């Protein structure tokens, strides 16, 4: 297995007036293809900021991020958009679905921006909605669905364009224990089937069982990296 | 992103904010309507001027007056009398189609028991056709005519029965073309005579038989005139001068009319008072006018009035256009406002679609297209509204131009005139202005960074 994400001495510094906040304070990390990597740490330790930088949603103040063979910190805004279109999926804690679109339309939306013709993208979206168990909720708007169902839609949306890496920021933060396990099961199995890499932030120590690796973050730095269960691929320590 | 997908997405976005979209479209519609109607008022004014002038049938004619003959031009040249030779010279100016002297003469007309003064214009019958004098009945003068005449439609109002004790005008339906018509240079012909009255002892003049061959339609210029061949008028004028010499002795007595031009010497040497020049095309009028003026004569053309009216109304048209543009700017601000509002509302959404792969140009296109739709619908409905408003203005004859320009109310006068080009221009303007108003908000939407957009509540 080869490295899919490589961070080299990455900083993200926020300026608040005179004060500087080192949200990410010199992190180097390599994530292998097919890994299910979990970022854990206390609140305010910089997990979300790190995840956004890896996914190309935010730019590092310093350092380089490579996904596959692409230095995404060097990409222009437009190139980055195209890169996200093709290779990245993202799942948010609060789902972030478009409230006026149905479940089906929400899932098909990334394909719309890719220029996939309508009939094909409907077909692909339907397949994924079926995979997440929402076959009978396709025509529903987000407001007509439960939190768990909405999160399933957002998972389907993240996986629909078959990205190389899927990022998830506390995807189960708003859900009860049973639903949380369902979601984890769903995401890890989807990623496993498609040989995709999954990087997620979670507070819940129970969920470590789903991960091949746990990265503990504190004050913007990596505190410790632990191996989790074997996901069937060959894994190694950084 | 495919064009069609952008299109449907933008329509959906507008559709889900129906009320705001509708209000914005109404704003643009009113703006477009205001600008189109204001311009249409100005256009109608212009059109009315031209229609009125062309109804006079004289837009390509120049009236030449020789009031200054015998004097000198400002640069010291002697102004020669307006003789036949001079008129022939004018007729040779480039762009001139023809020229005729105008010899004026007052005579008396008798039709049965009715008599009346008539004002005769003697012109060259060959040139008559060129003058576009409208003939409502019968024919105009042609070469070879001698004692033939065409009379203005209102000439019959001059005819009355002098023998009656009360005012006894000729009947409304008198048709001069069918009556036996006489003319005479004895201006007292047919009048009651009283003992001791001057000229009561005069000898009788035998009136001349003439033939009315045509009636001049309503023209404004010739309604009270009679037009006869120049040669005939010259002959009558001589007769009249001779008669007045005998009757009143030399000075023409109290009977001096427009006819007693300058003294009594022969017309050829003295020249005419007046001539009409017909120009081939409207663009030559100004130049021919200038050349005639250089000869020292007074020259006038309705085209000068047209220019003057246009100049006078230019200010008014600008004010009207200004009101329209102001209204439209307000509408455009409305569009920009709507677009900005919808961006603030949708900031989170813009962030989301950026995360899932919308490119900058996709976002710009979505927003511009939304603005474009508003512009198209606002424009088209605005034109519709303008046409309705224009119809109403014309129907109720709210003649803004006339009221401000003191133009008389006339038939066929328009209050508002919307030619096809104005419709296209109005709709196009609305579309472009809407796009422009949408451009700024679209740029803002593009520039929003993903994380900032997502954080916004
Ligand atoms: N846009 C910003 N401007 C200023 N400071 C920021 C910004 N985003 C994050 N920070 C700061 O950076 C630090 C790390 O924030 P981050 O959101 O990454 O923490 P986190 O580990 O995800 O915490 P949580 O578990 O509560 O989500 C915090 O101190 C936060 O205040
Ligand atoms: Mg966080």
From TrEMBL, chain A:
CDD domains in UniProt: ABC_MJ0796_LolCDE_FtsE (cd03255)
The record lists the membrane-crossing segments as none
Report what the protein is called.
Answer: Putative ABC transport system ATP-binding protein
**InterPro entries, per database record:** AAA+_ATPase, ABC_transporter-like_ATP-bd, ABC_transporter-like_CS, ABC_transpr_LolD-like, MacB-like_ATP-bd, P-loop_NTPase
Organism listed in the record: Thermoclostridium caenicola
Keyword tags: ATP-binding, Nucleotide-binding, Transport
Which Pfam families does the UniProt record give?
A: ABC_tran
The molecular function terms in GO held by this entry are:
ATP binding; ATP hydrolysis activity; transmembrane transporter activity
The segment(s) forming the ABC transporter domain are 5-238
Q: Name one GO cellular component term.
A: plasma membrane
The record's SUPFAM superfamilies line, in alphabetical order, gives: P-loop containing nucleoside triphosphate hydrolases
- Please name the PROSITE patterns in this protein's record: ABC_TRANSPORTER_1, ABC_TRANSPORTER_2
From TrEMBL, chain B:
Q: Which family does it belong to?
A: Belongs to the ABC-4 integral membrane protein family.
Entry membrane topology: Multi-pass membrane protein
- Xref: Pfam families: FtsX, MacB_PCD
Tell me which residues make up the ABC3 transporter permease C-terminal domain.
323-449
Chain coiled-coil ranges: none
- Its recorded name reads ABC-type transport system, involved in lipoprotein release, permease component
Please list every transmembrane segment annotated in the UniProt record, as residue ranges. Answer: 21-45, 319-340, 371-393, 421-442
State the species of origin.
Thermoclostridium caenicola
**What does the UniProt keyword field contain?**
Cell membrane, Lipoprotein, Membrane, Transmembrane, Transmembrane helix
């Amino acid at each position: 297995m080869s490295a899919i994400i490589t961070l080299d001495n990455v900083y993200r510094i926020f300026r608040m007036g005179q004060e500087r906040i080192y949200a990410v304070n010199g992190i180097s990390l390599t994530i292998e293809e097919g890994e299910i990597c979990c970022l854990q740490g206390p609140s305010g330790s910089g997990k979300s900021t790190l995840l956004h930088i890896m996914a190309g949603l935010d730019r590092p103040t310093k350092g380089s991020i490579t996904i596959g063979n692409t230095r995404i910190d060097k990409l222009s805004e437009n190139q980055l958009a195209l890169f996200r279109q093709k290779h990245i999926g993202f799942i948010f804690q609060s789902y972030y679905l478009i409230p006026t679109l149905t479940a089906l339309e929400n899932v098909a939306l990334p394909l719309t921006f890719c220029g996939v013709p309508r009939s094909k993208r409907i077909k692909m979206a339907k397949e994924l909605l079926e995979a997440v168990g929402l076959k009978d909720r396709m025509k529903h708007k987000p407001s007509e669905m439960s939190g768990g169902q909405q999160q399933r839609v957002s998972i389907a949306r993240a996986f629909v364009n078959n990205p190389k890496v899927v990022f998830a920021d506390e995807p189960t933060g708003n859900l009860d224990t049973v639903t949380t396990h369902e979601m984890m099961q769903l995401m890890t199995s989807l990623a496993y089937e498609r040989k995709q890499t999954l990087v997620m932030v979670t507070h819940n120590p129970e969920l470590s069982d789903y991960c091949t690796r746990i990265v503990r973050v504190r004050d913007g730095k990596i505190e410790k990296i632990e191996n989790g269960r074997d996901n069937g691929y060959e894994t190694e320590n950084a | 992103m495919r064009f069609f997908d952008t299109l449907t997405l933008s329509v959906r976005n507008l559709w889900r904010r129906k009320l705001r979209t509708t209000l914005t479209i109404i704003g643009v519609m009113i703006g477009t309507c205001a600008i189109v109607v204001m311009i249409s008022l100005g256009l109608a004014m212009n059109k009315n001027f031209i229609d009125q002038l062309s109804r006079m049938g004289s837009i390509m004619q120049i009236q030449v007056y020789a009031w200054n003959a015998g004097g000198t031009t400002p640069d010291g040249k002697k102004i020669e009398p307006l003789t036949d030779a001079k008129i022939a010279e004018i007729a040779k100016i480039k762009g001139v189609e023809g020229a005729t002297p105008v010899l004026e003469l007052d005579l008396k007309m008798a039709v049965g028991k009715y008599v009346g003064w008539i004002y005769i214009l003697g012109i060259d019958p060959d040139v008559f056709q060129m003058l576009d004098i409208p003939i409502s009945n019968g024919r105009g003068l042609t070469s070879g005519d001698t004692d033939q005449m065409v009379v203005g439609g209102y000439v019959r109002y001059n005819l009355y029965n002098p023998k009656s004790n009360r005012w006894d005008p000729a009947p409304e339906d008198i048709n001069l073309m069918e009556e036996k018509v006489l003319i005479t240079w004895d201006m007292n012909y047919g009048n009651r005579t009283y003992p001791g009255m001057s000229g009561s002892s005069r000898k009788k003049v035998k009136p001349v038989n003439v033939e009315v061959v045509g009636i001049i339609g309503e023209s404004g210029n010739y309604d009270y005139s009679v037009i006869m061949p120049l040669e005939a008028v010259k002959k009558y004028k001589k007769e009249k001068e001779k008669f007045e010499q005998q009757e009143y002795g030399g000075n023409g007595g109290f009977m001096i009319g427009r006819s007693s031009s300058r003294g009594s010497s022969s017309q050829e040497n003295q020249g005419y008072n007046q001539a009409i020049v017909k120009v081939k095309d409207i663009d030559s009028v100004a130049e021919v006018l200038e050349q005639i003026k250089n000869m020292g004569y007074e020259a006038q053309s309705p085209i000068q009035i047209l220019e003057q009216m246009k100049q006078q109304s230019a200010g008014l048209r600008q004010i009207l256009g200004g009101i329209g543009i102001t209204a439209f700017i307000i509408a455009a601000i409305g569009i920009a406002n709507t677009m900005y509002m919808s961006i603030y509302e949708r900031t989170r959404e813009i962030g989301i679609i950026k995360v899932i792969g919308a490119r900058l140009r996709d976002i710009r296109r979505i927003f511009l297209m939304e603005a474009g739709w508003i512009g198209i619908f606002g424009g088209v409905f605005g034109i519709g509204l303008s046409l309705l408003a224009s119809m109403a203005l014309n129907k109720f004859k709210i003649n803004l131009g006339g009221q401000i320009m003191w133009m008389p109310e006339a038939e066929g006068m328009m209050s508002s005139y919307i030619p096809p080009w104005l419709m296209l221009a109005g709709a196009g303007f609305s579309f472009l202005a809407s796009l422009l108003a949408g451009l700024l908000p679209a740029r803002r939407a593009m520039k929003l960074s993903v994380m900032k957009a997502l954080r916004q509540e």
